[in-house]
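Worked problem 6 (solution included).
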Amino acid sequence: MTTANKTYVCRNCGSTGLENYCSRCGQPYQTKQITLHGLLHEVFHLFTHLDKGFGYTLKQLLTAPGHMQRRYIEGDRFRHQKPFSTFFICATIAALSRYWIFKALYKYYNIGSITEATFFHEYMVLLHIVLLPIYALIAYLFFYRSKYNYAEMGILVLYTVSFFFVAATAISLIKFIWPKLDTAYIELPVLLCYNVITFVNFFNHLPRWKVMLKSLLIVCSMFLLAQLAEDYVVEIIR
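Solution. The predicted structure is:
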């Protein structure tokens, strides 16, 4: 570092420069020490300034379902979390949350089984990764005459399934109030409504009644496939 013009070395990529930010990777040359105050500020900023990234994407999936996915496919991508990373984050959150929920129900209410908790902890994410191409194929076959190809339909499905994970996890919390409640009776109607709204907004150039009918068939097919696959894996674990 010189006295006249300060030359900084980036601690991330090793390149040098004179400005505040690295011209190669964009990281600030001068990084602050990590403190508890800094971490709390980041958490506060995450929930109050949802202008890009995972929080923004989740917010858009809640407030603008279908519109958000279509805008992403059409090129509005900078502010959004990428579809695969969104899926992995949501699936991981759902798997860990439902593992803890089912484990607590088994421990304190003697409801369910430890096998179900084990499924969510070790197999749920992997199972849905395997099922993803089938989900996308189902949606594509119902809308193969639309202007969207299989990969673009996959983007729609990835984001939609990601929100399904978050919604299903929130619904599972009801079991702490009614432990014996089968939350599938709540999950399915919620997912049906959300999927219809998403597909109607996404395919806004197609007749609404056709889109609604097809979206209902799609989500029922996906829900049934997921339930059968999950039950099969749980039986294998047993």
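Discussion: DSSP finds nine helices and two strands in the chain.
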